[in-house]
Amino acid sequence: MALAFSVKVVLGSIAFAIFWVLAVFPAVPFLPVGRTAGSLLGAVLMVLFRVVTPDQAYAAIDLPILGLLFGTMVVSVYLERADIFKYLGKLLSWKSKGAKDLICRICLISAISSAVFTNDTTCVILTEFVLKIARQHNLPPHPFLLALASSANIGSAATPIGNPQNLVIAVQSKISFGDFLIGILPAMLVGVLVNVLLLLCMYWRLLSAQKDEEDATGEVVAEDDVISHRFSPATMSHFPSLNSQEWNSRLESMNENLSTRWKRRFWKFCVYFVTVGMLISLLMGLNMSWTAITAALALVVLDFEDARPCLEKVSYMLLIFFCGMFITVEGFNKTGIPSSLWDLMEPYAKINHVSGIAVLAIVILVLSNLASNVPTVLLLGGRVAASAAAISASDGKKAWLILAWVSTVAGNLSLLGSAANLIVCEQARRTPHLAYTLSFWKHIKFGVPSTLIVTAIGLTLIR
């Protein structure tokens, strides 16, 4: 696309620049309105500046992506209610054999959970568990928090539902869930293993320091778990004398509790069954957006209660952010600037050569940290795939998978690289009685080598 006439280029660039600043620095002093409002502001400016028409703005909003995002968020809410994340948290400390074992468990559980439940959800739920485990074992928290955040990002690269940019790629490329998984899974598995080795090498001495023997064998149990399982054997074995009416009342109460417990177990089974059914349907190649929405509504119906409390937990701010971002990126594309820049870079970024893959990966890595990964995917996706498809159809598919892998792992480069990193940092800082601040420098000290090595190794495994 040639550059549009100069006024549209300037005004569109200004609108995109405002969006970029507020997306990367949501609390910027001169306009601290946040990412969501910044996204809407960018979209409105694109229309007011006549870079896009109102009809083009509406058409730019990708409903299948929003539907898939909404459906997976609702399913995650019900899985949380069904205690799936509590069980994952218990797995972290079950029969633990020391600090190095904990690092391995955190990386593995975080990666697998993120591939199924998204990296952001995994980090929201598991950060407090990880912090409690580190504190109870009298260990420094930051290696474990880094293990959680970095492995969540790497693991989320394996599936279309692992993170928002993969949702965009899956919908735009029309790559099936199964093909996406097969294409990136080897890179993800090796990437997690390499990430574990890097963590162990970098923090070996810290994790090998002498600790309290009693702490080394402890198991983290949340307060609500302790309360819910509290009972008194003495009371159970020595009943006072009761008349028949009191006995009947006691038996009715026990029957009600037993009935409630079985209903709860059956409901949990239904939640897990629907979730597994959703994953199988996705693997079979059914429409991803409608599959996720159908699973979400099935859980709403099976719950047989007012769905408002669960639906209120959906991040509508994220959905609105995506709407604004779609319009803003569409407007920036119409200025012709992205196309012109890609025309300059395309001859050096052919994916049928190792040097071309390296150049493309560096561009994606830099843009993902400067402009965030989702806008990078929206700006580059179609161009990279079209360029690769001109070589061969299989190269077109490979280009999308490379974009998914690099834009996701790029999030590990710095603390600001992905929302998952910021979630871990904020959750750790706000955890009652266990607060810990993961600094920018502690993150980047591990993030830079991990990102570069994991990205490079993974690129050789993507097929």
UniProtKB/TrEMBL annotation:
<feature type="transmembrane region" description="Helical">
    <location>
        <begin position="444"/>
        <end position="462"/>
    </location>
</feature>
<dbReference type="GO" id="GO:0055085">
    <property type="term" value="P:transmembrane transport"/>
</dbReference>
<protein>
    <submittedName>
        <fullName>Silicon efflux transporter LSI2-like isoform X6</fullName>
    </submittedName>
</protein>
<feature type="transmembrane region" description="Helical">
    <location>
        <begin position="180"/>
        <end position="204"/>
    </location>
</feature>
<dbReference type="InterPro" id="IPR004680">
    <property type="entry name" value="Cit_transptr-like_dom"/>
</dbReference>
<feature type="transmembrane region" description="Helical">
    <location>
        <begin position="33"/>
        <end position="52"/>
    </location>
</feature>
<feature type="transmembrane region" description="Helical">
    <location>
        <begin position="353"/>
        <end position="371"/>
    </location>
</feature>
<feature type="domain" description="Citrate transporter-like">
    <location>
        <begin position="27"/>
        <end position="410"/>
    </location>
</feature>
<keyword id="KW-1003">Cell membrane</keyword>
<feature type="transmembrane region" description="Helical">
    <location>
        <begin position="269"/>
        <end position="302"/>
    </location>
</feature>
<dbReference type="Pfam" id="PF03600">
    <property type="entry name" value="CitMHS"/>
</dbReference>
<keyword id="KW-0813">Transport</keyword>
<feature type="transmembrane region" description="Helical">
    <location>
        <begin position="7"/>
        <end position="27"/>
    </location>
</feature>
<keyword id="KW-1133">Transmembrane helix</keyword>
<keyword id="KW-0472">Membrane</keyword>
<feature type="transmembrane region" description="Helical">
    <location>
        <begin position="314"/>
        <end position="332"/>
    </location>
</feature>
<keyword id="KW-0812">Transmembrane</keyword>
<feature type="transmembrane region" description="Helical">
    <location>
        <begin position="400"/>
        <end position="424"/>
    </location>
</feature>
<feature type="transmembrane region" description="Helical">
    <location>
        <begin position="59"/>
        <end position="79"/>
    </location>
</feature>
<dbReference type="GO" id="GO:0005886">
    <property type="term" value="C:plasma membrane"/>
</dbReference>
